[in-house]
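Structure in, sequence out. Go:
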């Protein structure tokens, strides 16, 4: 009588389902460091591979070209910014506190990751033909929740009635300019102190109450 053979057990460790995503993030972290140091044109993909600890062919399996890799690195940086800002805002219970935490997280992120600012500069220099830079693609995609927050503040009578698009655009432009000024001119204050200054002007304005409206 023939005995049915047992199926063979797989030898070795089971495949790591999270490895591809983890490896991709590692390559992007290395690419961010190399591109920010050398710029897009001078950066060597081999250095990125060496820094990651993989072969150059592995890098190209994840990213078909140097251009794809660079733009993915910029996108990676913007996603990390969103994660940092969202996590900080989520710790606050009140709407105004959420705005304050978001501003502080934004300024802190770029203070701790100046290499991301470099990528934004290099993207503008080498990919000027792009319709919308990566930073603004993400800004537009992520603005909805903040506009809803300001709608809530307007309904509550906390913020005066203005188009929420106008509010978020002005605040975003202010932070964007502050980020670049900090990087190029040198920041003298901590992100926390700078956040206080921004919020003081944003929430309280420049004019004393009796003079508000006199400029119109």
């Amino acid at each position: 009588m023939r005995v049915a053979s047992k199926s063979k057990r797989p030898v070795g460790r089971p495949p790591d389902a999270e490895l591809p995503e983890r490896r991709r993030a590692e390559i992007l972290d290395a690419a961010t460091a190399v591109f920010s140091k050398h710029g897009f044109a001078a950066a060597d993909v081999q250095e990125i591979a060496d820094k990651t600890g993989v072969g150059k062919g592995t890098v190209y399996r994840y990213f078909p070209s140097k251009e794809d890799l660079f733009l993915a690195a910029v996108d990676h940086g913007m996603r990390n910014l969103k994660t940092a800002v969202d996590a900080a805002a989520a710790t606050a219970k009140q709407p105004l506190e959420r705005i304050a935490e978001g501003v502080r997280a934004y300024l802190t992120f770029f203070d701790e990751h100046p290499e991301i600012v470099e990528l934004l500069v290099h993207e503008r220099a080498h990919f000027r033909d792009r319709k919308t830079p990566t930073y603004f693609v993400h800004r537009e995609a992520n603005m909805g929740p903040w506009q809803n927050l300001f709608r809530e503040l307007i309904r509550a009578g906390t913020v005066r009635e203005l188009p929420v698009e106008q509010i978020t655009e002005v605040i975003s432009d202010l932070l964007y300019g502050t980020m670049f000024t900090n990087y190029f001119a040198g920041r003298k204050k901590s992100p926390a102190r700078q956040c206080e200054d921004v919020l003081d002007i944003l929430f309280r304005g420049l004019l004393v109450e009796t003079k508000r409206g006199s400029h119109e």
